[in-house]
Amino acid sequence: MQNQPPRTTTVDRFTIGRCDDCGSLLAPEASTCSSCRGTEISRTPSEGTGSIVAWTVLEVSPSRTYTDVIPYTMAIVALDEGPWTYAWIDGAPMEGAERPRVRYSRMMSGEPYPLFVQQTC
Ligand SMILES: [Zn+2]
């Protein structure tokens, strides 16, 4: 078993963007609406579940704090709400799974992208 970093007490809700003009749901880091080019973007809670559409495995940790959980996988996740987001995946995607299901785990300090974990059920 891996040593897990201590859990923080911060409630760490995953949010995505939502266009104030047309209501389109957008990637977490979006600053411009992909539908209407609006720039008034609000935050809205996401279920934090989706499917991996593309990934690459990195043997180098993105964060010196979490060197115990390499290799990391950088993936593009299609959220169930629609938007796609870049995300770190804890571990390598399962062999043979066409679009592995993942869910939001947490943000890592110093990292712009969220960490997702694979759903094994
Ligand atoms: Zn819009």
Describe the structure in brief.
With 121 residues, the protein is an all-beta fold.
Describe how the helices and strands are arranged.
Blueprint: E1 15-19, E2 25-26, E3 41-45, E4 49-58, E5 72-79, E6 84-90, E7 101-107, E8 114-118
Parallel strand pairs: 6-8
Antiparallel strand pairs: 1-2, 1-3, 4-5, 4-7, 5-6, 7-8
Bound molecules: zinc ion.
The site of zinc ion has 8 residues, from loops.
Explain the overall architecture.
The chain is mainly beta and 121 residues long. The chain has one domain: OB fold (Dihydrolipoamide Acetyltransferase, E2P), CATH 2.40.50. It is 0% helix and 40% strand. It contains no helices and eight strands. The strands form two sheets. A five-stranded mixed barrel has the order 4-5-6-8-7. Strands 2-1-3 form a three-stranded antiparallel beta sheet, with no helix packed on it. The model has no long low-confidence stretch (mean pLDDT 83). Bound molecules: zinc ion. Zinc ion is lined by residues 19, 21-22, 24, 33, 35-36, 38.
Strand order of the largest sheet: 4-5-6-8-7
The largest pleated sheet is described as: 5 strands, mixed, barrel
- Considering DSSP H and I runs of 4 or more, what fraction of the residues is helical? under 10%
Compute the number of helices. Answer: 0
Name the ligand types. zinc ion
Helix vs. strand class:
mainly beta
Per CATH, the class reads Mainly Beta
- CATH architecture type: Beta Barrel
Query: Low-confidence spans: pLDDT under 50, at least 5 residues?
Result: none
Number of strands: 8
Radius of gyration (Å):
15 Å
The overall number of domains is 1
Arithmetic mean pLDDT = 83
CATH topology: OB fold (Dihydrolipoamide Acetyltransferase, E2P)
Q: Could you give the distance between the termini?
A: 20 Å
What is the succession of H and E elements?
Answer: EEEEEEEE
User: Strand content of the residues, in percent?
Assistant: 35-45%
